[in-house]
Design a protein that fits this description.
By secondary structure, the chain is mainly alpha-helical. The chain is 53% helix and 9% strand. The chain has helices at 9-18, 24-35, 43-56, 70-79, 92-104; strands at residues 60-64, 84-88. Strands 1-2 form a two-stranded parallel sheet. The longest helix is centred in the middle third of the chain and has 14 residues, at 43-56. The termini are far apart.
């Protein structure tokens, strides 16, 4: 049914308490997204993607919906130097911002 949650609130609250805070430029990106109401992945999904990428070490990732480049950056930082990410965004303003963020993180050679 539409609008139903897939987990209980207490699980999400617990995860928010035990997961480490984001630091550095990724934290700046989170703050920007919050202030400007840009949708990015939640803290628990960020941690899940990090674990998944560290375990699987993918060589190629396709992302649909770049926004500010947050999740692509998380995946690139967690996947290793051999991973290349292609990400697609239809909003040209978001594309410009994502490219700037990706460059500031030094990931331009791995995220296109």
């Amino acid at each position: 049914m539409a609008g139903e949650k897939i987990n209980y609130d207490y699980i999400t609250e617990y995860l928010h308490q035990v997961l480490p805070e984001t630091k550095g430029y990724l934290k700046d990106m989170e703050d920007y997204a919050h202030i400007n109401e840009v949708p990015i992945i939640h803290k628990e999904m960020k941690s899940f993607l990090e674990v998944l990428c560290k375990m699987k070490k993918p060589l190629k990732i396709l992302e649909i919906g770049t926004a500010i480049g947050y999740s692509a950056s998380v995946m690139a930082l967690s996947s290793g130097k051999d991973c290349h990410i292609t990400t697609i965004e239809r909003d040209s303003d978001m594309t410009t911002l994502a490219l700037e963020n990706i460059q500031k993180l030094g990931l331009s050679d791995r995220i296109r």
